[in-house]
Fold this protein.
Amino acid sequence: MEGTYTEGFAKVNAGNAFINPLAKLNRDIGIAIVGPKKRGKGLKMLDATAATGIRGIRYLIESAVDDCTFLEINEDVFSQLGANIKSNGVKAAALNTSIQEFCSSTRERFDLVELDPFGGIYPYVFDVAKVLRGGSYFFATATDAAVLCGAQKNACLKLYSAKPMHNKLCHETGLRIMIGYMARMLAQFNFGIDVLLGMFHDHYMRVYARIESGAAAATKSIGELGFAFYCDSCGAITSSKGLVPVHAECHECGSKMRASGPLWLGRLKSDAAIEAVSAYASKSGDRHLKSVSQLLSSELDIPLFYHIPSFTKKLGITGVSPDAVIESLVMRGLSASHTHFDPNGIKSSATAADVTAAIKGCAAGSGSAMH
Ligand SMILES: C[S@@+](CC[C@H](N)C(=O)[O-])C[C@H]1O[C@@H](n2cnc3c(N)ncnc32)[C@H](O)[C@@H]1O
Ligand SMILES: [Zn+2]
């Protein structure tokens, strides 16, 4: 990117450094969750993959963070980072080193670590764990969606020790594989992971988590791991906690189900995080962020979803909207919501048979059956 880039209260020059203006949304959400400056000592942050430094600089100016260490492995990029730190007038330490080297040699601990590498997070989580403590925030972005979502299945098996699901559910299972990996790495340090918000957006996975300290917390996190199942025949979905998969056969039609995991089956959002993001969006007047926060807020926090077009295709029906199916299920006393993972998906406690019946009902009502 040429010239000066302004975002929030930061102004940076990219030079040779990578910057993605579209990632503003995920930077905004992090700043919203951490919250504004308070009286007394602020938070100590590690911007582990700094590039231009936009992330750490924004936290320093706009949030409760008052101390930041920036890491940048690339020498050219590092000199641009130094210039940006200076021109923004923030006081910070910047080191031209790697996450691996820094985290293995420091005695410092951080209240917030931002990990935003090129590609996957798997090479770094183990080292990041060394500089966390109970109560730390650990925010991570992954752009290796092709691996996590199963387009590169063997890479997922090799790098995450998890089987991906390469179908319409892959963005959710990919995110849950990423969190499952974080939970397993962190557990080795007797850390548990509390997911404040986990989302898929613009082709990347994003996790905002808080670290809990102690063997019990670590064991509790591992207890949230399990497997996700999908039936190609009838569209049924289910999941089972534990590191032994149990639902080989579909509970609705008896067919063999596809399995994915181990992956995170715990929560993907907290009320406090959603409220913070929503308040931030209202205050900043950012309508895109507001609509994202509304969608996340209304979404049922349960594993997996039903992809409506996969049902309508099999039924030979067109033109049934997720809204209509949600309304029909809710009228029957079942829970149902949109999902941010897919505009054509719905989360619901209903069975696949219930969803099929609702879709048929909607099609009959609107006269949209093809024959
Ligand atoms: C995706 S960019 C970061 C973007 C930035 N966080 C933002 O919000 O604009 C990733 C950066 O991490 C740096 N990097 C890659 N591997 C690293 C490592 N092992 N340790 C520290 N920095 C690394 C790259 O040189 C690159 O500048
Ligand atoms: Zn089935």
About this structure: The longest helix spans residues 170-187. Residues 17-19, 23, 49, 51-52, 54-55, 71-74, 77, 98-100, 116-118 surround S-adenosylmethionine (ligand 1) (CB under 6 Å).
